[in-house]
Amino acid sequence: MIHANNPGPALRLYSQNVNSLKRKLGTLRTHAGELAEFDALCFVETKMAPGLPTDSELQLGLEGFTWFRRDRTANGGGVACAVKASLSPVHRPDLETDCESLVVQLGSGRAAYLAICYRPPSQNEATQKIADLLRGLHATGHPFLLTGDLNLPELTWEDGEPTYRSRTARAELFIDALTTCEAEQSVTAPTRGGNFLDLVVTRGGAAHSRVRDRIFDADHEAVETRFTVDLGVPPRVTRTRVYNYKRADFAALRQSLRLLPWSVLWDFNVNDATMMFYDLTFAAIQDFVPLVELRRKYPPWYDRTVRDLLKRKEMAQKRKKTGLFNVPFGRVDTVKNGLGVRVPKLVNEFLNKYPDEDFFQPSLHCTARIRAYARGLGTCMT
């Protein structure tokens, strides 16, 4: 589903009431490959105490994601989300209200907001706070998506429009907020029993949600959403760290794995045993497989036009030495002038577009001829 005003690619989101993420870290890691296909993971009723589990424990298997969380206690409540780092996620507590909510800004160009909410069934007053959250997101003027377990069983949404099973004050308050914000709700199938408890509310982008098989063992089904919104051009990633298996000490790694007390795993349930297995394995890998930084081979402004001009310059210089001026490649001065116009333009465009890019590091100019010519341009590089 594509919206005319939002031609960007669709973001894929997975959301579920997991009823204790802390106890299901094994499931999180076992299904990390499947979950990594989504752009954002949204969880409610995480039941995590502050700092337990740690962010590094949540990160295992999902290294490309940034985690955000709002914990209550280990016995109930709590919301969390993991967003791909390529979306430049930023926590926005200034947009959150006193309800159990979490707001994350997506995109460094045109911003959009992702909000996760949980309303406990006994807290009717939290509906007003969720309505205030919706109005606050609407006031920013940016697209937003709000998802979570709102516990409003008196509303059904089979045809995409709300129908009252019973007209309650909290249901009317929620519908009034949707109308005021010109927002839409896209879940059209029950998520627990016959009730529509887990909802997806959007404005400013096209959303298509479907209830799917849950990954985490809980009494709520999962919701998968495709949210089409234009976030602008993503920032450039200049470096990344990967394992350098060529320099790994595999003999020591095998010996370390042999000496690990694997028998203790039998004393735990499957989720805890899986979590411990990953912890022990990744700890051994990090000890004996070094990390290496991948660096960009060419400067970011080096495109096909510059490459072709450099080739023509070299060919023209060779022909000049042999006295062959009357050739299709033209004179050396003509080609150098072409480079002198093209390269400064590309460099200035790059600096204006990415002012925070660490552009002048020598590692970005590992090709000697590019580095030498860039120095010769002088004024455009300083």
TrEMBL record:
<dbReference type="GO" id="GO:0031012">
    <property type="term" value="C:extracellular matrix"/>
</dbReference>
<protein>
    <recommendedName>
        <fullName>Endonuclease/exonuclease/phosphatase domain-containing protein</fullName>
    </recommendedName>
</protein>
<feature type="domain" description="Endonuclease/exonuclease/phosphatase">
    <location>
        <begin position="16"/>
        <end position="211"/>
    </location>
</feature>
<dbReference type="GO" id="GO:0003824">
    <property type="term" value="F:catalytic activity"/>
</dbReference>
<dbReference type="InterPro" id="IPR036691">
    <property type="entry name" value="Endo/exonu/phosph_ase_sf"/>
</dbReference>
<dbReference type="GO" id="GO:0061343">
    <property type="term" value="P:cell adhesion involved in heart morphogenesis"/>
</dbReference>
<dbReference type="Pfam" id="PF03372">
    <property type="entry name" value="Exo_endo_phos"/>
</dbReference>
<dbReference type="InterPro" id="IPR005135">
    <property type="entry name" value="Endo/exonuclease/phosphatase"/>
</dbReference>
<dbReference type="GO" id="GO:0007508">
    <property type="term" value="P:larval heart development"/>
</dbReference>
